[in-house]
Records
---
Amino acid sequence: MVVINRINLNRSSYLAITDQPDDPRLQSILEELKTRKKTFQTLVYSQPTNKVKLKKALLDQTIGCYLLIGATPINVREIVQTALEYHFTHLDMFIFEDEPSVKHVFCGCCHFIHDNVEASRFVCKNCGQLIEVSDHFSHYYHAVLGFPNIQ
Ligand SMILES: [Zn+2]
């Protein structure tokens, strides 16, 4: 667990949004924030019932709050998009990455996001287009971009 040096520790308050109670990914960070006497809140998020709770929690935060987000890719997208609507920016959040072996690919043709892609090219299960997996990771979609292979 070496993510701590990638987290902004200079903010005054923190909100952790995760989809599992007592998320083990947060333990070392929580301890660090406690040592630094930072304000800290956690929200356990499970789609879609907690969307209202999420919006309320985001609204309740003071300016300069930093988000720590750990969830499945679908939930991460939902949480990030909601946070952006509530005037957080990508600099105000840290997203726990999945295992490096788990790759999510965005279909450049129909915008469907495939989970757990292992191949370098595959047929999109949503639009049927043959997709080439690029090396470009989109932080907006939290997925690798895939481009239609047109021949
Ligand atoms: Zn597609």
---
Amino acid sequence: MADAPAPLTITAPTEETVTNPVTDEGDHDRFAHYVRKADAARAAVEGVPVRALCGKVWVPNRDPSKYPVCPECNKIRDRLMNRNNN
Ligand SMILES: [Zn+2]
């Protein structure tokens, strides 16, 4: 159950939908990605990978404040927020 990949179907952002970016640990492409708050919390506790809004899956373990926000995540989040407001 730990590694079942969930499809990216964030339909109605609630307070559960994040806003804390977490970072990519790759050698390149270092961005802070947006993930769902529940996923981020679980990752912190269990060390399991998270799935970003852009679809990237990785285990976050860096301080996101040092990195620029992933443009793709930013775009998706904007879209979700706008839909939520309408
Ligand atoms: Zn991203």
